[in-house]
Known about the structure:
The longest helix is centred in the middle third of the chain and has 15 residues, at 118-132. This protein is 28% helix and 29% strand. It is an alpha+beta fold. The protein has helices at residues 34-41, 58-70, 118-132, 137-141, 149-157, 172-180, and strands at residues 2-7, 16-20, 24-27, 78-83, 93-99, 105-109, 162-167, 184-195, 198-208. The strands form two sheets. A six-stranded antiparallel sheet has the order 1-2-3-4-5-6, with helices on both faces. It has a three-stranded antiparallel sheet with strand order 7-9-8, covered by helices on one side.
Amino acid sequence: MTLTAISCSSTAAAQTQDLQTPRLILRPARSSDVHDFHEFFSDDEVMTYWSNAPHTELSQTQKYLDGMVSSQWNGIRDFVLELKTPTEGRKKVVGKAGLWDGHEIGFLLSRSWWHKGYMAEALSALLPHIWATTSPRSAIVSETATGSAGEEEVKQMMVLDEIIADVDPRNNASLGILERFGFRKTGVRERTIETHLGWCDSVYLGLNRPDQ
Length: 212
């Protein structure tokens, strides 16, 4: 895996980075990704267990993507999946993966690329990157608070002891890949969210830091 720093904001907790795998580039989302995003966000099968119904308008996808682009985690813990090999004469975005809120993992892949190992390849780069760029809470709280308020805020943003997941129990593909990467079930709860499928249940999973 190659890590390449591409930008750094004075308000960001860390540099945004590209993560490279044999077939993918995991990079920050851009507003120009909207048409690629809409291809899978409008797909009924891809969106079956997503928290929202398939998008019927490009504006819905643009709103979602704008939120991802403006997030403090864009390119730090949350990434788009871009094919290294040009498709249709250009590099194509075929999915997303990351900790969308800094703690909870979520991922989505265009149906044309299912069953080819792409999401496993993405997670193989994503998870080590996240652990390498965060610290356990014990390491943060043991430090003497000598920095400014802004520096202390940055430290707290980089704390991560566990990655969590919330999955529909019927979503065997997502459960399978999470368990393959070491996630363990921590609980089950009924009727946690109402989506286009009606009321749905949740299986909760967690992955602890490997150095704890």
